[in-house]
Every structure is written in C-alpha cells, then in structure tokens.
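2024-03-11 09:14:02 INFO worker-7 job=invfold-0412 stage=load source=structure_tokens
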C-alpha cells in the first residue's frame, strides 16, 4: 500500500480527531458492556469523525459515519423496545444468517471499492470499502443485539489499524488497537449473556 500524496497534511495531531476518538472509545466500551448509553455517545463521535475522514479523503468512511448517525437512533429504540415492546435480549444468529451476511459484506466491499477506484481519488478504495461494508454489517447486528456483531468489529479493527496509520491518523490507529482488544472482550461477554433460544436456529 503506497502512501497518498496528502499524507503529510495528517501527521500533526488533530483536536477533532482526538475528540471523535474519545466519544467513539466511550461508545465502544459501553457497547461491550451492553449499556444503553452507547447510542448517544455514538452520535457525537460520528459527527466529528465525518469531518476528520473527509479531510483525509477516506470517502467510504465519511459515508459510514452518516450510516452510523442514522442507525444510532434505530438501535436506541430497538434495544429498548425491540422485543414486542420489551428490552431486546442478547442472542445468537443462525448459521444461515451468518453465511448470507458474510456474502453480502464481501459483495459490498468489491462493488463499492470498484466505484471509488473508478470515479474518485479515494485512497486504498477496496481496503476502505471493506471497513465500510463490515462496519455496516456489524452495526446492523449490533442494533439487533446479536453476538456475531463482535466478529465483524474484530475484522474491521484488524484492517483499519494499518489503513489509518498509512494516512497519518495515528490517534485513530492507536485507538483501533484498543478497540480490537475491546471487541475480543465483548465477544466473550456477549457469548455469556446470550441464552440459547429457538430463534438462534430459525434464521431470524
């Protein structure tokens, strides 16, 4: 992966990047703890990140922040009222749902990466698109309080660290290392929280 021509512009620490990461860190830790307050901290962090990624020419990430802002409202409601008006429980997904979601993530990565490659000056369009696709998938599973959300975040964090380092977003890259550890811890915690139910094997 070759560094982009504007790498030097992002070597100095950006106060907005630091603030965005602070809110993002809070939301990720709260999500791992299955805490409802993750949703408003997500909103604030994503608004700040939208600007940070725009200046770094990571346009797929800008799109991603808009998605997170919209779905934060949906997730907030789903966690509180998604189980017939009651709080939605933590649960597992069926094997069929896991396979179809993975296939969809790969398809979106390839398709959106090609669009960015052909029609924009995006840096590392396919890698950036993988971060987008599986972050979207992770967020949708998180909204539904599914354990498999955390497998998506493990993948996203693994890919995002070298991507952000290559653009000089050092604070963000360092935080994503911590997020990788947090995702592993969250995966173990949510596995303990999720009691086996019929819906685990029904494809819901």
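2024-03-11 09:14:09 INFO worker-7 stage=emit residues=204
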């Amino acid at each position: 992966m070759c560094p982009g021509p504007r790498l030097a512009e992002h070597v100095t620490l950006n106060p907005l990047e630091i603030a965005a990461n602070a809110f993002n860190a809070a939301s990720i830790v709260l999500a791992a703890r299955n805490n409802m307050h993750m949703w408003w901290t997500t909103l604030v962090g994503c608004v700040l990140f939208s600007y940070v990624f725009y200046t770094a020419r990571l346009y797929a990430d800008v799109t991603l922040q808009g998605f997170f802002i919209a779905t934060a409202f949906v997730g907030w409601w789903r966690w509180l009222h998604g189980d017939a008006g009651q709080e939605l429980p933590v649960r597992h997904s069926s094997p069929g749902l896991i396979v179809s979601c993975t296939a969809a993530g790969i398809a979106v990565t390839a398709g959106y990466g090609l669009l960015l490659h052909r029609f924009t000056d995006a840096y590392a369009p396919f890698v950036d698109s993988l971060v987008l696709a599986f972050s979207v998938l992770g967020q949708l599973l998180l909204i539904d309080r599914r354990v498999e959300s955390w497998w998506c975040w493990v993948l996203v964090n693994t890919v995002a660290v070298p991507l952000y380092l290559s653009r000089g977003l050092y604070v963000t890259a360092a935080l994503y290392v911590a997020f990788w550890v947090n995702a592993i811890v969250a995966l173990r915690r949510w596995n303990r929280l999720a009691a086996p139910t019929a819906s685990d094997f029904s494809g819901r």
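2024-03-11 09:14:09 INFO worker-7 stage=report msg="The chain has one domain: 15-84+91-196."
2024-03-11 09:14:10 INFO worker-7 job finished
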